[in-house]
Structures are given as structure tokens and as C-alpha cells.
Amino acid sequence: MAYRELVRRWHEGVLAADGGDWDAALDIFAGIPEPPSRICFNVGCVQLLAGRPAEALRSFDKTVAKDNSLAVGFFQRGFVHLQLEMYEEALSDYHMAFSHLRKNPFIDYKQLGLRHILYAWEVLYSTAAAQCRLQQWQEARVTLDKAVVWRPEGRTAILDQALERVQDRLFLEPMRVPLGEFFRPRKKEVEQLDSKDFLGKPKVISSIIPNDEYIGFEPLRPQKQGFYEPSADTLRDSESGYYRVSSHYYPEDSEKLAVKASSLVFVVARGADGWATAIHDGQKLRIPSSLLEPASKMDKWKISNGIPLPPAQVPPSRLHVKQKPESPGGENASANGAQMDFKQIPPTHGEASSSTDRPVVLRARCECTVVVRAGEVPSLPDLRALLRERFGQQAERGKLSYRHSDGKELGAVSGEEDLGKMWQQLTDGRLTLCCQDSDSHSGRPVLYRMLAQHSYLAQGPGDLEFSKGDVLDILSEVNEDWLEGCCNGKTGIFPKCFATQTGCGATFL
């Protein structure tokens, strides 16, 4: 058991004993595997309080067995022996307790958690009590005389009365650790059981995004220009919102165009002087109210300039660290020892037929990427030539796969045996064949491609970072919110809402 858990149970057991719930305290102490001597001592004290001296004796036996130098353990066990009329054993325990005092007048157990001081004269007094019950009156008188030597100031009266009782051959009542005293865990250790938040929650002090309410532990990263729609508490009047600018606007003190016609701006407030405070292209400016026209709801999603509208302030919930991307079909097919995820193509065939005696229509679906140099716009013949060359290369080196007749999974075509299986999947004389680009993605096929609508900054070591306008090769669909893709030679995951699907394909009949 960890020491933290030991301290927790130790503290709970002591609290239960303080409240008088002896059974609950014993149950808590019993739940501690291999309890130390101090816990065993506490169990013995609780058993005494519950009126069970026999069970208390067994607990004190364990106490001195685990720590044979604990003088207070022998002292308390001697008291239990007297209660059970085991006088010889009690006398032996008191002799052991006195020897473990090592000629010290007392031992203060406060440092160990017990608020009790065991004095040498108290041990000798209890020793005399045991000798009286053994009818050793002379030895009891000698023991009390020895106790007088060890007595502290102010205790003479007690020992004088004890000597008189022994002279009259009357029994002495033994001393014991006061009721309700237990070994307790250290106060500082108890205070540290509950976790404390020494740092507190972070708070955004300043950001170029007006309503940035992000709270979390993450390194600072550069912000780009752009505003989200401010929260409700930042709006100054009921006319705040998106407006379209009817004509070009030039500030009085500058010839530079500030806002183009038909641009969308977000108005924070409109003043009685005919001017409005607005946000445009990441900047706050004043613009005449006469140039503003209320924007429709559809205008907000057709913005080509002005205020950018990213998909969301916070990306979707991230997948678990141990979660592995799954293929769209739910299972992975393997070819030549490499794990591959195939794209599911909607079936375009009807009833199944395995006959190849009649003409067969083979529909081939191909996907490829054509690179065009920046600044060069190819003519239509040149573009067709590029496509013809690219399709020819893909048809020769691409990954071939076909859809089973049940429409649930794809089968790879990597040899003559696979080809024979493919022809068995004919349905009404038709078969769909998928030819996918074999470009290097660690041997994995490209399911489809997407166009980045917004830039995405990596928020973790496994994220794919890209810029607006980049073409993303999709390798797998992690879940409904996240995709795994490749861009600029790097592979990672990214939120699906940052891109839209695109692709180029050709169909041959």
C-alpha cells in the first residue's frame, strides 16, 4: 500500500475512534495490509474501549512483535495482562518497559503521534501493583522506594500513599495510557492528502481577437488578423451586426482605399453623428452610416473579403491518444504486407451473375493529381496532354481494387489469383474497378482529396499543419470530426471542418 493511502486510512480510523464508533474504526484499521506497530497499538486501545481485553491483548502482542523497543507497547500490554489476571506476564512486561526506557526519566511520544509521556516512576508503580497481586509485598516496597528516586517534583504524595497501602497489604491499581489517546498521523501529512491547485486557472489578459475566451495550458502561438463575431456583452446597441458597404470608402486623412464596395463589415455601434464604429479586415475604423446596408443571413456565408469567418473558435474534440484511425469500411485490407485503407465506391450494379460468356462492361474509376507551375496557365490541348500522360502512368502503376458483390468491402488485385476472384464478382455483366494513385504515402492509398478553406496551426505533435488553398490527400477518416491526411510531404490529423472535398476523376466505359 502506498504511504499516502496508509495515512488516509490511518486518519479516518482515528476520526472514527474519536467519534466513539469502535466498530467502524476497527474495520478501517483492519483494511490496512501489514499494519505497522502504531496501527496495531491503536487497535488494542480501541478494543480496550470496547471492553474486549482478550482481543486487545492480541493486538498488543502484534505491536511489540513489530517493534520490540516500543516501551509504551509493553507498558500497555502489562495493563491488559493484569486485567486478565495474568500476573506473571504483566510483571515481565513492566520489566521490559522499564529496560527500554534506557535509564531515561521519561519518553515523550509526541514526535511519533501519541500525546502521552511515559515516566519511569509510572512503570515502577505498575510493577509494584503486579508484585502485590503475586503477594510479593517486600519486593513491591523496594520497587516503590526505587520509584521515589525517579519521581518528579509534586508526585511524592502519590508514592507515599502507595507505600502505606503496601504496608497494609492492599492492592495498587496499575497505571495505563489515558483513554482516547492514539497514535495519530502528522498534521502536515493529513493536510497534503487533498490535491491543491497552486497555479489556478489561466485567464486571457489581452488578445487581438476581441472575444477570445480561451482558457487552457498551451504555449502562445502567433495570431492572424481576423475577428470572430464579438460576444453579446461587447455590443453597444441593438443595431450591431453585419452590414454591407454600398460604395468605396476613403478616409478623410488618407487617399488609400479603406473599404471596398460590397464588402461586409461588423458594426459595433452607430452614433447619432452619422458615423459607425466597425471592424473590417482585422482593423477597427469609423465609417459613415449612410454607406451601410443590413446584410442578409446568406451574405455571411458568401464572404470573399472583409471579416473572415473560420469554422469554429475551438476545433472538435480530439481523439483519444491510444485510438487508432479506422478505415471507412471498418476493416483494413492488406497487400504485399502493407496495411491499406480503400475508398468505398457506391455500387452501380444490380443482380449478381458470375457468367463471362457475354460482353462485360468494366467501369474504371481513377483519381490523380496534376501539378501545374505557378503563373503558367496551360492551354486546353496542353491540359489534355498532361491528363493523358498522368492517367497513362496511373493505369500502369496504380493500385487496383474491386468491390465485392455484397457491396461491403473492396478486394485488392495484386496477382492472377485476385484477378480470378474479381471476375467472379460480375453483377449483370458489370464490374466497377478502382485505380488509385500509388504516390508515396507510406504505401497507403489516397481515398480522396480536399481543399483547405482555412489555415490550420498544429496544436499537437500529431497534427497536420497547412495553409488556406492547400490540397490535402486524405488517407483515412478518423471519426466524424477528424481526418488523417498528407500535405507538403507531412502526414497528420486535422479537423474536417477546415477543408471541403474536391477531386479529379475520369470514367471509362
Tell me what the structure shows.
The protein is an alpha+beta fold and 509 residues long. Helix content is 29%, strand content 18%. The strands form five sheets. It has a five-stranded antiparallel β-sheet with strand order 6-5-4-3-7, with no helix packed on it. It is elongated and about 130 Å long.
Question: What is this structure, in a nutshell?
Answer:
This protein has helices at residues 3-18, 22-30, 37-49, 53-66, 71-83, 87-100, 120-133, 137-150, 156-167, 187-191, 380-397, 416-423, and strands at 106-108, 117-119, 241-245, 264-270, 275-280, 283-288, 292-294, 333-335, 338-340, 361-367, 399-403, 410-412, 430-436, 448-452, 471-477, 482-487, 490-495, 499-502, 505-508. With 509 residues, the chain is α+β, with helices and mostly antiparallel strands.
Q: What descriptive keywords fit this protein?
A:
alpha+beta; 5-stranded mixed sheet; 12 helices; 19 strands; elongated; disordered C terminus
Could you give the order of strands across the largest sheet? Answer: 6-5-4-3-7
**Could you tell me the radius of gyration in angstroms?**
44 Å
Output the structural class.
alpha+beta
Helical run tally = 12
Q: Helical content, roughly?
A: 25-40%
Approximate shape: elongated
Uncertain spans, ≥5 residues at pLDDT below 50? Answer: 215-229, 300-313, 320-356, 503-509
Q: What is the rounded distance between the termini?
A: 72 Å
Main pleated-sheet profile: 5 strands, antiparallel
Q: What is the average of the pLDDT values?
A: 75
Range of strand content: 15-25%
Number of strands: 19
Write the layout of secondary structure elements.
Blueprint: H1 3-18, H2 22-30, H3 37-49, H4 53-66, H5 71-83, H6 87-100, E1 106-108, E2 117-119, H7 120-133, H8 137-150, H9 156-167, H10 187-191, E3 241-245, E4 264-270, E5 275-280, E6 283-288, E7 292-294, E8 333-335, E9 338-340, E10 361-367, H11 380-397, E11 399-403, E12 410-412, H12 416-423, E13 430-436, E14 448-452, E15 471-477, E16 482-487, E17 490-495, E18 499-502, E19 505-508
Helix pairs in contact: 1-2, 2-3, 3-4, 4-5, 5-6, 6-7, 7-8, 8-9
